[in-house]
Amino acid sequence: MNQIDYYCIVVYLISLLGLGMRAKKNKKAFFSPLFFIWTGTYFFIYTFLLEVMIGTYYFLIPLAFLGLFLLVYSLEKRLLINGLLFNLFLLSLGILMLIVYLETRDQLLLFLLEIVVTGLTMLLFFGSYGLITFLYWNAMVVFKKESHSLSNLLTFLLAVGLTALLGFYSYFSLSLPLWGAALFSSVLLVIGYFFIVLYNFLTISILYQYNQPKYQQDYIIVLGSGLINGNQVPPLLGKRIEKAIQFYHEQLKQTSKAPLLLMSGGQGTDESLPESEAMKLFAIEKGIPEADILVETESRNTLENMTFSKKIMDQHSDNKEYQAIFSTNNYHLFRAGIFARMAHLKADGIGAKTAFYFLPNAFLREFIAIVMMKKRRHVIVSALIISGMIVLSYLLYRYM
């Protein structure tokens, strides 16, 4: 590395130290969105300056994807395409760094690229085995700590499926004739397609986690998730209520205006009272005045949570403009936002933390639900992939 590269690294490290001191002062995690935003911005500017020196303008491509992402995200956060746009920005940024390195042979860019390539290489060679091992481990933990319902066995079922696929690929695919390999590849391509959909979903889900509504809300909708023993709030639902209560106190502290908590949840066949009533009692025990709590007792799912809550807020505010957010668990945040949009409710969410061991199953469940929302589209894409590979397999069988 030349002297300028060392200066750039020193400036970057000093800036990180400043961010760390700021995070500690504000009692926030060091690896906050600001850390990643600043790191990306810093090295993007560095790459841009290198391009200025060599007189090229490749930086406009990732800049265009970033601008498009920010535009669409600012207009509507609750769109899956936002994940795709952000990943296209990251991909084009990586390609930009590679092109600029090939043009300049800059050692700092080479160092960054080596880190990325090393990570991708390890992921390529060990990722599938590591993923399968993690899924089996997670399935064992969930099996010990949670009920043995189908929704809690998703990581185990995925691990078994990937094991079978990997075993077939390792022991049988190389012995297949060319046309058979092409036919088998259709399965891999469909899996690859759904992996891309999953990756985009996880990207926007994570980005949406960092959305921080302003402390100027009139209502906080707390989404129900079922009671235990017919009348008790389970820990998962309790976290949602506590997250809403936390926001309630923060807004009251900053603006002296308390939002109303709107508990949303109907009564199941195995419940002795509406879920929202149990949620109300839970909040009162936590110190929330009864006058600051509304209840919605008819809903049976998240879409109805949003739809019926909107009716109550419209009536309560005499159809005047109001500000509202919703509280749920972090893994459920993005899909709940989609349901809010479907209910024509302009509301973003705040997410309560969930135990790490529970997240893989929860996100898989959310992903399946997201896929089913657009199942026709995914069926068509999968059918086109399989049809194309069947045609290719036939041509290989016929002429080779």
TrEMBL record:
Domain DUF218: 218-368
Keywords (A to Z) from UniProt: Membrane, Transmembrane, Transmembrane helix
Top-level taxon: Bacteria
InterPro entries for this protein: Cell_Envelope_Assoc, DUF218, Rossmann-like_a/b/a_fold
Residues spanning the membrane: 6-23, 30-49, 55-73, 80-102, 108-137, 149-172, 178-202, 379-397
Keyword Transcription regulation: no
GO cellular component: a single term: plasma membrane
Identification of the protein by name: DUF218 domain-containing protein
